[in-house]
Amino acid sequence: MPGDTAATERIDEEPEPMVVTFKSRDEPEFQKPDHDPHGETCAAAAHSTASCDRCGKSGVVPTANLEYASGFVGGPEREVICEDCA
């Protein structure tokens, strides 16, 4: 709305970063079961490799979080940061 300084300030503000927990592909949820050594686990399929935009720490995070942070599902693009940088 013209003249609404509160709305203008909200637009100019940097969006809150997406804080994520980086996991290792060595964690049990990403391991294939012995009886099915082919394919990909559900957890692995739902995660992507990424890195912290501030310190560079890397690992796997839920793909949905990365899609949200990138702005693909609406909203502004935002940084992806680790819990240590939050």
Strand content: 15-25%
Low-confidence stretches: none
Helix content percent band: 10-25%
Count of helical stretches: 3
**Which sequence of SSEs, written as H and E, runs from N to C?**
HEHEEHE
Would you tell me the structural class of the helices and strands?
alpha+beta
With strands numbered from the N-terminus, the spatial order across the biggest sheet is 1-4
Shape: elongated
Rg computed from alpha carbons, rounded to a whole number of angstroms: 17 Å
Major beta sheet summary: 2 strands, parallel
Number of E-type strands:
4
What's the rounded overall pLDDT mean? 86
Measured distance between first and last alpha carbons: 33 Å
Organism: Halohasta litorea
Protein name: Small CPxCG-related zinc finger protein
Plain-language structure description:
It is a single chain. The chain is an alpha+beta fold and 86 residues long. The protein has a domain of 56 residues. The strands form two sheets. A two-stranded parallel ribbon has the order 1-4. A two-stranded antiparallel sheet has the order 2-3. It is elongated. The model has no long low-confidence stretch (mean pLDDT 86). It comes from Halohasta litorea. This is Small CPxCG-related zinc finger protein.
